Amino acid sequence: MSQKKEKKGLKIVTIGGGSSYTPELIEGFIKRIKELPVTEIWLVDIEEGREKLEIVGNLAKRMVKKAGIDCEVHLTLDRRKAIKDADFVTTQFRVGQLAARIKDERIPFENGLLGQETNGAGGMFKAFRTIPVILDIVSDIKELAPNAWLINFTNPAGIVTQAVLNYTDFDKIVGLCNIPVHTQMDCASLYEKDVTEFRFQFAGLNHFVWYRVWDKNGNELTADLWEKRQDKKNLGVKNIVSINYDYDQIKDLGMLPCDYHRYYYLQDEMLKEGLKSFKEKGTRGEIVKKVEEELFELYKDENLAEKPKQLEQRGGAYYSDAACELISAIYNDKGIIMAVNTRNKGAVSDLPYDAAVEISSYITADGPIPITFGKFPNAGQRGYIQLMKAMEELVVKAAVTGNYYTALQAFATNPLVPGTTVGRKVLNELLDAHEKYLPQFRDYYENREKYRK
Amino acid sequence: MSQKKEKKGLKIVTIGGGSSYTPELIEGFIKRIKELPVTEIWLVDIEEGREKLEIVGNLAKRMVKKAGIDCEVHLTLDRRKAIKDADFVTTQFRVGQLAARIKDERIPFENGLLGQETNGAGGMFKAFRTIPVILDIVSDIKELAPNAWLINFTNPAGIVTQAVLNYTDFDKIVGLCNIPVHTQMDCASLYEKDVTEFRFQFAGLNHFVWYRVWDKNGNELTADLWEKRQDKKNLGVKNIVSINYDYDQIKDLGMLPCDYHRYYYLQDEMLKEGLKSFKEKGTRGEIVKKVEEELFELYKDENLAEKPKQLEQRGGAYYSDAACELISAIYNDKGIIMAVNTRNKGAVSDLPYDAAVEISSYITADGPIPITFGKFPNAGQRGYIQLMKAMEELVVKAAVTGNYYTALQAFATNPLVPGTTVGRKVLNELLDAHEKYLPQFRDYYENREKYRK
Amino acid sequence: MSQKKEKKGLKIVTIGGGSSYTPELIEGFIKRIKELPVTEIWLVDIEEGREKLEIVGNLAKRMVKKAGIDCEVHLTLDRRKAIKDADFVTTQFRVGQLAARIKDERIPFENGLLGQETNGAGGMFKAFRTIPVILDIVSDIKELAPNAWLINFTNPAGIVTQAVLNYTDFDKIVGLCNIPVHTQMDCASLYEKDVTEFRFQFAGLNHFVWYRVWDKNGNELTADLWEKRQDKKNLGVKNIVSINYDYDQIKDLGMLPCDYHRYYYLQDEMLKEGLKSFKEKGTRGEIVKKVEEELFELYKDENLAEKPKQLEQRGGAYYSDAACELISAIYNDKGIIMAVNTRNKGAVSDLPYDAAVEISSYITADGPIPITFGKFPNAGQRGYIQLMKAMEELVVKAAVTGNYYTALQAFATNPLVPGTTVGRKVLNELLDAHEKYLPQFRDYYENREKYRK
Amino acid sequence: MSQKKEKKGLKIVTIGGGSSYTPELIEGFIKRIKELPVTEIWLVDIEEGREKLEIVGNLAKRMVKKAGIDCEVHLTLDRRKAIKDADFVTTQFRVGQLAARIKDERIPFENGLLGQETNGAGGMFKAFRTIPVILDIVSDIKELAPNAWLINFTNPAGIVTQAVLNYTDFDKIVGLCNIPVHTQMDCASLYEKDVTEFRFQFAGLNHFVWYRVWDKNGNELTADLWEKRQDKKNLGVKNIVSINYDYDQIKDLGMLPCDYHRYYYLQDEMLKEGLKSFKEKGTRGEIVKKVEEELFELYKDENLAEKPKQLEQRGGAYYSDAACELISAIYNDKGIIMAVNTRNKGAVSDLPYDAAVEISSYITADGPIPITFGKFPNAGQRGYIQLMKAMEELVVKAAVTGNYYTALQAFATNPLVPGTTVGRKVLNELLDAHEKYLPQFRDYYENREKYRK
């Protein structure tokens, strides 16, 4: 039994602290300092990220200093020291850095498949690399800071959350994504009203979530919003090509999709567009790499002591602010609704009880409680999401066990992999490319000929 | 498709407006007038209740006048006229008045069974009498005020809600009970803190609900509260004898029971105590009748223009205030948590999807959304509540169809009826006693010899 | 309540009696005449099939005569007269004849999609045409022969069964496919043993069914059989290209797939192969047309009085014999196990209670009872089959309601349709091509411009 | 992975071999010797049963010798030696012998509760004593005879099966009861037909099972059989008082109950009758003790070489023959239907997936497969059986863990225990009475004062 929790100055630990997003996180804490008494921020990174950690860490220190708040920023490569007695641990690391992402995107594209960071073959490999590290972190937290909450926004955030929920006895994880925040902001801007004038209900999986929306008088606006969204190219996250959904098909679903559903409902067009872009401009990872280098140049400026505007152009805007809001909601037992990744427990009837789902949840000091969603209104949603969850389970199992055949099965089940022949080829090429970061697949590396037949 | 809902002055209709509880309701509206602009209150009753309606209705008028608010109180026997264009309809009627309750209690006791208003044989008959009337009211609302919400606190509130959810296509019903409010107040008083310092999670059925409690730092207090509640005889609703539960058995359950669980977990003691009290003092209905007569004497006083203190001594205290709070929460899309009776939709995994459950719900302008509870922590709760829900379904089906055999099956399934021999005898005697109010059981009345073998 | 069933001479009705398969059916009855006293066989067809009905019907008469059994063969275009007092009705008709099938295959192929009779776009349209006719037949049976069993082997047999189970109150339908029979025969031939030396357990959907196998000592042979099946090109039904599955992926599944899973697990290869064959040889329907014409030439031979060997070369071999066996099993309360399409009722935990499933069932005089399968051993199977069932539900709903948007949703959900852009184009072209046979889609035909945006 | 199973001479082990039922078992093997080549029968007992083992064992030897079959009968107190390489292990032992049963019956009766061998307080204690021993036996089987099947007919057979299914990874257990056999025989005798002329479907829990029945033409006879059973006092097992059920209530259920449902549906009458009989004649256990002593006197007769007629007067008639039939059905992969206790796996929708259920099952060489039952037709059945299963889970958990509070919860949940006050008293008295056989409740015995408050 862990000791009784009490209110006090908070120690926050950010793993992957050298990320370019860190300034948004720092800004988020600064602006909430009255309701959320953060006294220590520990930015943790690994040796390969030391330089970036120092650049962004020093910016963080300048930001805190300028804000005049009573908070110390620590930079460290010693994860265990950082975690010790933490109140909240956030994770925003990328195993293998952008170089690994570029491979995740390039190899599928070279084989005629979609190459994308969190979907299809690349998304599954991001999970394979990330999950063992998250499980290590959870192990540290259980030992060194058993009362801490783990706020994960390392992608694929839903699959990572599922891994922790299904392969550890640690329940205090919340997975967070910026898609629901984006969606709400888009809605508010289309109606030219404040976001608080709406009530949203999200239900689904991370990057595969649907939603409905109501006004404050209880009138449902979902169909009206769908009408309003047509031909508004500037909506949605920046990293997804904004091809229009089939208006009627979505309307028939009775709920609106997130940006990522395009990869499935517009599969051939998104693939064609992706292949074209890949040939012309290379991978998204390569583009992001340049943006990041520019950001770090900015961050080096010793006169800079606030989050630069340019950061908002990154695909992940709002992520860090949402994390700060979630931390505050837990700390203050706020009872607000946020869409997070958490254990289903029956909230979405069409998915397993212990599945991680992305769902509008009531945030308490004891964590998020999903508000009950029930059954999907349309068999189309139900079938597709059940397939996606099955695929996620296989990905998690392969990531944890390193079983090659389970990984192959995950590929066979992923709707963006059109068959096992090309699927197995891509699987093998990605395994070969990421050997350094996939120690659990040792048997594959030691017996390649056995697996490559 | 109903018209778009907008904010405006509200018309409230109270069916069973001649109830002695009405002053609490009026007080509830008066004190919320700034957030809840009630401009019309229609108190409706039937011919048999005309006198009480006038007495309490005139008190209501005096209360409103004294408060100086812009609201008209109407008294009427014309239910349809009252319902026309209503915003909220509340129901607090008692079919057959207290005379019927007294029979519900007396006849079981005379046969050696528990005689109680909402549990056992009596509770089932209260449902048989009430459900046809509620279904009529729903039919009127659908025709005359399709945007209105029906707030039912006529007992058995859960079973009545189930009838509407399962036998009509009307979804805008919320069943309300004062037990959760009482429970929260008791907790606050034991800790000598404000009730807002706690977070409660209720899950179960009306009069068969369990709960857990946390402080604002996320520490669970359930076991501690159980310790604190020991030997505090003044807790709980006034109408239930306060015999102590087995401390260890409840602790093992992992959630705390409501007052009514005593009839089940302490079955023989409660029966013995009930029979003793019946012999010495007659039925609870007879006692209440006297209390009510005294209240109405008070209400007649033309100088009285507020809710008299004595009303709080009735078992149903807090009911009406909870109703006003619920109405305000819906009207204002408050997003607060209240324990209400609503459709399960998977919130309580151990109960059917379409069952009415009593559960902590997030209250929106579109009605309550249960917060997800999941599975009960203990097989003991699960098994018992599944039996209770099955019994409730049989009661609803018998009430709607008037099928004698279904009623007999409900008796055979009710844990407070120890077998079909005595059960059938009591069933027949109650049917005979309530003939006037049970038109749906026509076949029984026309063919008694067939059913009485 | 229907009258009591008793043993007597049986009246069998075959709708689509002009089919080239009829001789196998007749042979099946002849060889079982001692256990199954068929005294009347009514072959029913429509005006367009009159010539074929007469040719094959006369062959049937010669076969029966040669066998010397006491059974009359009737040929008729009057379906209701035939159904009157029938004991078993079998259905093997094809709405729109082979010309419609050819369109189902050609149009998808012309748009770069798989063109196949029972899968993908073509399979969905076969359902759209067939379901309204089946519902009419069920309506006739309920009126004219309420004790009769409907044995459906019109494809897509599973979806057609689902339509009857979900949109009528008629329960006495069994859907039948030759795939499980084929599978069992293939196994027996690989082991060079009699088929009775094995016990099979099938579970899934029609044309999407998996199986395991045991010997009579209870040793599971599934993995061993998988090993044995490798590189045996002559296995499986004749109408599916026999590309090898990924050996390891299937082994990991823990159950063996049917031939049709290739369209999903080997999606790109099967599509490539299909397109190649289409370009070189035209559609499968066109090939079958020639085979049929040759068969009917044979059937015309007045000296022919038995099923010609050539019939076994058709893809549907064993179908009719399986139907006779099923009829005998019901009539004789045999208690044998057959894989049929019937209501799930929980037998396959991962599919809805009321879904039609293809499952090993215990055959009684009261129909098939699925033997309990439980959960699929692998998430890969679970997810895929849940998607397929959702798609089937949408197909049935679109077929019954004629709702264009539901049809579009079915296309969006079908894994063989790679997105809504091409999907909607193919949907429209197929609707246009089949106008004569799709009266339920009236609104589309009257308002094409509305739907074609 | 266990070795491959093959047909060969069989070694049968019977634990509790000194039971008076053993001659029926031996007879069962003798009459099936052609289909079931039993070559070794090992009768195992403990020191306390040595004398009975020798008496009945010698009778068994004489029976085998007289039959002239090639089979050796071994008598031993060495359980592990017996189990080594066994093919089938049957269990019919009684922990604490009849003396323990007498306490299970006497103590509840003395406290005004039903005292019965397998129901209520006594039944729960029989489970507490038996389960640890069964788990030991399973452990031995896994080590010494991993291919063996365990056929358990030690009561409470369903709860014991549940313990093995939920607390070990051993799946090869089948629980067997004579109630379904009895029921089928009663039906056949009422219709004066052979039992093979009927098809039965049983579903429920051991000693809480319902059934339906059909003739060979598929006509359901359930209601007709219920009519026929009225006032036939000589039906049912011998050990249950044959008070008539309420005819109408059972008819409304849509399925017929077993004899044991009387304890629940006729609770007060059965209790009254039980208390009367207890006062007049003592416990059932005491009566059985005398019957057994008489049987053993018979068995001693060296001229006796067959099962004596008098054995059929014992309540457990048909048990052993059913066991032989089950063993033969498994050995021969018979594919017959028998009602056994096995894992639910969704067969009964209203019960948990992993629950032990008593259900008509298809018997294969790989064990029983439940035939799918679906949902109970009546909420009355559903609710009651869900309560019973919850109670069984608590009993199993208490038996395995020795947790006093779990045992108390089981008592609180058992419908035959009317409340925790008397329940706890009886629990304590039974714990005290059975100390010798309940080592798992060590903490209670060492800290009685703590538990007795």
TrEMBL record, chains A, B, C, D:
<feature type="site" description="Increases basicity of active site Tyr">
    <location>
        <position position="117"/>
    </location>
</feature>
<dbReference type="InterPro" id="IPR022616">
    <property type="entry name" value="Glyco_hydro_4_C"/>
</dbReference>
<keyword id="KW-0326">Glycosidase</keyword>
<comment type="similarity">
    <text>Belongs to the glycosyl hydrolase 4 family.</text>
</comment>
<keyword id="KW-0378">Hydrolase</keyword>
<dbReference type="InterPro" id="IPR001088">
    <property type="entry name" value="Glyco_hydro_4"/>
</dbReference>
<feature type="binding site">
    <location>
        <position position="207"/>
    </location>
    <ligand>
        <name>Mn(2+)</name>
    </ligand>
</feature>
<dbReference type="GO" id="GO:0008706">
    <property type="term" value="F:6-phospho-beta-glucosidase activity"/>
</dbReference>
<keyword id="KW-0464">Manganese</keyword>
<protein>
    <recommendedName>
        <fullName>6-phospho-beta-glucosidase</fullName>
        <ecNumber>3.2.1.86</ecNumber>
    </recommendedName>
</protein>
<dbReference type="GO" id="GO:0046872">
    <property type="term" value="F:metal ion binding"/>
</dbReference>
<dbReference type="InterPro" id="IPR036291">
    <property type="entry name" value="NAD(P)-bd_dom_sf"/>
</dbReference>
<keyword id="KW-0533">Nickel</keyword>
<feature type="binding site">
    <location>
        <position position="155"/>
    </location>
    <ligand>
        <name>substrate</name>
    </ligand>
</feature>
<keyword id="KW-0170">Cobalt</keyword>
<dbReference type="InterPro" id="IPR019802">
    <property type="entry name" value="GlycHydrolase_4_CS"/>
</dbReference>
<feature type="domain" description="Glycosyl hydrolase family 4 C-terminal">
    <location>
        <begin position="202"/>
        <end position="417"/>
    </location>
</feature>
<keyword id="KW-0479">Metal-binding</keyword>
<keyword id="KW-0408">Iron</keyword>
<keyword id="KW-0119">Carbohydrate metabolism</keyword>
<dbReference type="GO" id="GO:0016616">
    <property type="term" value="F:oxidoreductase activity, acting on the CH-OH group of donors, NAD or NADP as acceptor"/>
</dbReference>
<feature type="binding site">
    <location>
        <position position="177"/>
    </location>
    <ligand>
        <name>Mn(2+)</name>
    </ligand>
</feature>
<dbReference type="Pfam" id="PF11975">
    <property type="entry name" value="Glyco_hydro_4C"/>
</dbReference>
<dbReference type="InterPro" id="IPR015955">
    <property type="entry name" value="Lactate_DH/Glyco_Ohase_4_C"/>
</dbReference>
<feature type="binding site">
    <location>
        <position position="101"/>
    </location>
    <ligand>
        <name>substrate</name>
    </ligand>
</feature>
<keyword id="KW-0520">NAD</keyword>
<dbReference type="Pfam" id="PF02056">
    <property type="entry name" value="Glyco_hydro_4"/>
</dbReference>
<dbReference type="GO" id="GO:0005975">
    <property type="term" value="P:carbohydrate metabolic process"/>
</dbReference>
